[in-house]
Amino acid sequence: MVPVIMQMSRDPTLALPIAPLAWALAWGADIGGNGTIVGATDNIVVAGISKAEGYPITFLSHFKIGFPNMLISCLFANFYLLTVYVGFGIGVGYSLYEFEEGLLDEFGNPLSSAASSAASTMAAMADAMTSP
């Protein structure tokens, strides 16, 4: 999924900031695995250990507890992401498209249009000099 969010951030028509996409992917992958017993490796390990100790955990018994907890955790994660990145706009950052096209300086600050065109011209000249 990392290549997918990178492509979404590189697309000039979308130009989505990479930070919210990366956090949403990380939290979705982490929290989403807790819904079922086969959703995460640690769930399978714990089910095996508990079965060996005489306390088996079935798919349905885990699902009854794990799935509602996963939904509540996803709800809180969505609320946090929407509040921070949409509501307050804190730490949104820039897209990979803006970075790769030379629209940002080395510190991630937006360049003026004149500096931006000069930076893209310099990058094109550098590419031309290095290509055979």
Account of the protein in words:
- By secondary structure, the protein is mainly alpha-helical.
- The chain is built from six helices and no strands.
- It has helices at 2-10, 18-32, 41-52, 59-88, 96-100, 113-130.
- The radius of gyration is 22 Å and the shape is elongated.
- The mean pLDDT is 80.
Helix/strand layout:
Layout: H1 2-10, H2 18-32, H3 41-52, H4 59-88, H5 96-100, H6 113-130
Quick summary:
The protein is an all-alpha fold.
Salient structural properties:
132 residues, mainly alpha
Largest sheet: none
Separation of the first and last Cα atoms:
34 Å
| Individual helix count | 6
Mean pLDDT: 80
Give the overall silhouette. elongated
